[in-house]
Design brief:
Layout lengths: L2 H12 L5 E4 L2 H14 L7 H6 L3 H13 L6 H24 L8 H26 L3 H14 L4 H13 L3 H8 L9 H13 L3 E3 L1 H10 L6 H5 L7 H15 L6 H12 L4 H13 L3 H10 L6 H19 L3
Parallel strand pairs: 1-2
Helix pairs in contact: 6-7, 6-8, 7-8, 8-9, 8-10, 9-10, 10-13, 11-13, 13-14, 14-15, 15-16, 15-17, 16-17
Length: 325
């Protein structure tokens, strides 16, 4: 039994355990909410400063009177509100009753829903087009405006986080994603939150395993990929792993996987898994010269089946390039 404390001391000495802040992702959500609460906490004014103000006594008396003797509300206003609610309920009831199925949405509700989704689609399209064009600052206002007026959805939140990352603004990405990660199981949210946490120097228990799960796939049989991934539970390693995971599960028809693959290679030059992801993306886009360069950048550190696959991909790109493929 004496070995357990010795192991714990060894882990603490390595500096890895001290960076773990709790279990992923619940601990990050708690930390993010506390962080936002401290940012929005109103400034406290001391009682002495209030008393010293020439209008303090008068203001205090007036406010106290208003609390103890609230102004009575006119009955007419209450009656009007009640009538409006009743009329609204009756109108909705009539619309439902006139429908073939009272549980189906009314034409008015369907029209409102169509407007809602049209506006949401416009915000998403504008944001994605701006990001793909390399102008993430243009994507931020419409996405922020949508989220200010509507409940957060995974697509809009993910896209806004992408814009923040490209603007080198990980703090805003953290504040956006952190409070949402326990209410969503979507990897689009969780992997971006992992990157934001790593950018903030935070590492959580289970965070590394979650990223690797998305890099290797559900089968987990790509052991050559696993052997060449960054080791350790450090923010630097988690930044690379989060970027590779995002590149592995994103839609390759958009610019996001390209960006996150490039970010991984910027953070860890020559990383074979990131190089393979980037080369495969370029290959699928018929950008063969760039694909060859990407594959070659990771050959020195590639192993086993990953090395064989990358060499085969280079040969395929060269053949397609020479035959006008």
């Amino acid at each position: 039994m004496i070995f357990a404390p010795l192991i714990a001391i060894a882990i603490l000495a390595s500096g890895q355990a001290s960076s773990k802040l709790g279990h992923w992702p619940e601990a990050m959500a708690v930390r993010a909410k506390a962080r936002l609460a401290s940012m929005h906490q109103p400034k406290q004014v001391s009682a002495n400063k209030v008393a010293a103000h020439p209008k303090a006594a008068k203001s205090k008396t007036a406010s106290g009177a208003s609390r103890s003797n609230p102004k009575p509300q006119a009955r007419g206003s209450v009656k009007t509100t009640t009538q409006q609610k009743a009329a609204s309920g009756q109108t909705k009831h009539k619309l439902k009753a006139n429908s073939a199925d009272p549980y189906l949405p009314t034409p008015e509700e369907m029209a409102a829903e169509q407007v809602f989704f049209a506006n949401w689609s416009a915000a998403i399209s504008t944001g994605q087009a701006a990001i793909d064009a390399g102008t993430p600052s243009v994507a931020v206002p419409p996405l922020q405006a949508w989220l200010q007026n509507n409940p957060p959805d995974n697509s809009t939140v993910s896209l806004l986080a992408d814009a923040y990352f490209r603007l080198n603004d990980p703090n805003d990405a953290y504040n956006l994603l952190g409070p949402l990660i326990t209410t969503s199981s979507d990897p689009d949210i969780l992997l971006r939150a992992s990157l934001a946490a790593a950018d903030a120097g935070e590492v959580y228990i289970g965070q590394r395993e979650y990223c690797i799960q998305w890099i290797l796939g559900s089968s987990g049989q790509l052991t050559d990929d696993a052997n060449t991934l960054p080791q350790g539970n450090t923010p630097a390693a988690l930044r690379v792993l989060s970027c590779i995971a995002l590149a592995s599960q994103s839609d390759w028809s958009q610019s996001n996987p390209t960006y996150y693959s490039q970010q991984a290679l910027t953070l860890d030059p020559g990383n074979p898994v990131a190089a393979e992801r980037l080369g495969t993306i370029y290959m699928g886009q018929s950008r063969y010269s760039e694909a060859i360069a990407a594959f070659q950048s990771g050959l020195a550190r590639a192993e086993g089946g990953l090395l064989t696959s990358m060499k085969a991909s280079i040969s395929t790109c060269q053949w397609l390039q020479s035959h006008g493929g």
